[in-house]
Amino acid sequence: MPLDPITILMFGLIAVLIFFMFRNGKKRQKAMQELQSGLRPGAEVMLQSGIYGTVVEMNEEENRATIQSGSSTLVVHRNAISQIVTAVDAPADAAVSPDLAPDDDPAFGERIASENSDGVTDVSNTDVSNADASNAEVKDSDGESDQTPKA
């Protein structure tokens, strides 16, 4: 049975459809896992019914969450929470040390002072755009400038 181009195209489209179905399912599963891992006491959440509240307690064994909404306390299944409105900070043991900030890199052309093993401070310039080695100007002992091209 020869395969004509229309049949090949149809099988290709079915394969692409199945690929995107699995991909979408994995994305939803990952988003739900992130939501469930972010549920901690003190987090402000919204239930699927539209009720806003603050998580008071999470019972992992029974999959229940105690939510404080205004003066009412609700006990709901943890899957009834649709989104976290205001997350609670991570526990202190997961905090990153304050001396490692992602924005500590020097800007282009900024001078950096580093200390050698001898205790001497060395200042280096990271801007190399002005250093043109082919046309370096050298001054003689009598003060005249001498243009010497470097190869």
Automatic annotation (TrEMBL):
Subcellular location: Cell membrane
Membrane-spanning residues: 6-22
Biased composition (Basic and acidic residues): 137-151
Name used for this protein in its record: Preprotein translocase subunit YajC
Naturally occurring in which organism (per UniProt): Leucobacter viscericola
Disordered as annotated region, ranges: 95-151
Keyword Transmembrane belongs to the record: yes
GO cellular component terms given for this protein: plasma membrane
Pfam hit, one: YajC
Regions of compositional bias (Polar residues) in chain numbering: 114-133
